[in-house]
Write a structure and sequence with these properties.
Helices cover 52% and strands 19% of the residues. It is an alpha+beta fold.
């Protein structure tokens, strides 16, 4: 029970971190992408505004304030010459010096008037013309094509296709995301182990409280056995001296109920504490044998038990506890069913599991009743009308036995039947 709670805590912490990391990375990526695209578009607009076809040199113009470098490329590619309007030259602005621009100018008749290929470092004339032609063919005035951002400007005597190489920006963004993924993965791994430690610290008081409760139930049950035995002995002595009377009969009746309750509490405590000796059990024979004493009880109540049992199904467990499991389900169906038949089936399910189902007609339970049906001492007016030896512990014991044997138990309502299903792993 607490193992599942620990797993849920670890899952919640790690899932929250992963969700936060994904949202953060997505936000950073999209915001950077938008900012980078906006900056590139602004630089392209500036490039187009300062572009003058008649002043374009036929060869790259070296910068006045920067050396040529080893590769011979300067000023971040091919930039327009200083504008005649007195504005600051683009080649002196850092963002332009670190960028590579390309441009193709087309005349009104479609002829190529000028090509600027950024010193030919990344694009040659042929590839640049092919790219510019596809951009014009698309009919879009701006956008991105691969790593190139482009802007198409219509002038009086020509059409300009200006392009900006965004390889460096995209590569930097990819590197940023990669580094964040690595850091996020390392952080998630660290937090996973931290969450395991925290889950143990959080659940430890609950485990200790549960152990104390089980110890209390066990100790109280053992302590109650002595006064119950004394009351029974004294009642028997009084009967011999003064004879039978209704007061002694009431004492005996309540004493027997108390004795049964203590036995169930001790059984529940023993099962939940893990005291389950394991041996190979033929579940088919055990179930068939447990049905026999209930058939006569069912006959007295005007009911019948329809059983379908697949032979040869074996499990690893305690035969006494498994008998108690079958007995509880049959007794529950017999005591609380409204129809004249009880259906029991035992068969092999997928994944090498033995499945036991017990079904009986019943009034439709509420959602709360289905949810709390396996709680200790839980009784409802609709399902617990008898005044016999039923204390709301039977289904709790059935659940504890099932879990102690590594199985699952569930209750569901399929009108008009209430169905209990127990699944146990078979012995290999």
């Amino acid at each position: 029970m607490f193992g599942k709670t620990k797993r849920n805590i670890v899952f919640a912490i790690v899932f929250s971190l992963l969700a936060l990391m994904i949202v953060t990375l997505t936000t950073i990526y999209l915001s950077n992408r938008v900012a980078l695209r906006r900056e590139n578009e602004e630089m392209l607009k500036t490039y187009v505004e300062r572009y003058a076809l008649e002043e374009q040199p036929t060869a790259p113009e070296p910068a006045e304030d920067a050396g040529s470098g080893e590769g011979g490329q300067t000023d971040g590619g091919d930039l327009p010459p200083p504008p005649p309007d007195g504005k600051e030259p683009m080649r002196r602005e850092p963002q332009f010096r670190l960028s590579t621009f390309y441009s193709v100018a087309y005349g009104n008749s479609g002829e190529v008037l000028a090509i600027r290929n950024g010193n030919g470092a990344l694009q040659n004339d042929a590839s640049l013309l092919e790219t510019a032609a596809s951009i014009l063919k698309s009919g879009k005035k701006s956008g991105a094509k691969g790593t190139l951002y482009y802007l198409v400007a219509e002038r009086e005597s020509y059409t300009l296709v200006a392009m900006l190489d965004g390889t460096i920006g995209d590569r930097n963004q990819t590197l940023l995301i990669r580094q964040m993924l690595i850091i996020g993965a390392v952080s998630t791994a660290i937090l996973f182990f931290v969450s395991i430690f925290l889950a143990r610290r959080i659940v430890r008081p609950l485990e200790e409280n549960d152990r104390r409760q089980k110890r209390f139930v066990s100790d109280a049950g053992h302590e109650l056995k002595t006064p119950i035995a004394v009351i029974s002995a004294n009642s028997e002595l009084l009967k011999r001296q003064i004879g039978e009377n209704e007061w002694l009969a009431n004492i005996d009746y309540e004493n027997r109920r108390m004795c049964d309750l203590v036995k169930q509490l001790l059984l529940l405590s023993r099962v939940e504490s893990g005291e389950t000796p394991k041996e190979t059990v033929d579940l088919s024979k055990l179930t068939d044998g447990e049905i026999l004493p209930f058939e006569s009880l069912a006959f007295e109540h005007g009911k019948r038990i329809d059983a379908t049992i697949e032979p040869g199904l074996t499990v690893e467990g305690d035969p006494n506890q498994l008998r108690q499991l079958v007995s509880i389900l049959l007794d529950n169906a017999l005591s609380h069913g409204t129809g004249d038949s009880i259906t029991l089936s035992l068969f092999e399910k997928e994944r090498h599991e033995a499945t036991l189902t017990v079904a009986n007609d019943a009034a439709e339970p509420s959602e709360e009743q289905l949810t709390r049906m396996f709680d200790r001492f839980y009784r409802t007016d609709e399902a617990r009308t008898d005044a016999g030896a039923h204390y709301g512990l039977g289904l709790s014991i059935a659940q504890a036995v099932t879990k102690a044997h590594g199985g699952r138990i569930a209750a569901e309502y399929r009108k008009p039947r209430l169905i209990f299903t127990v699944t146990l792993p078979q012995k290999d």
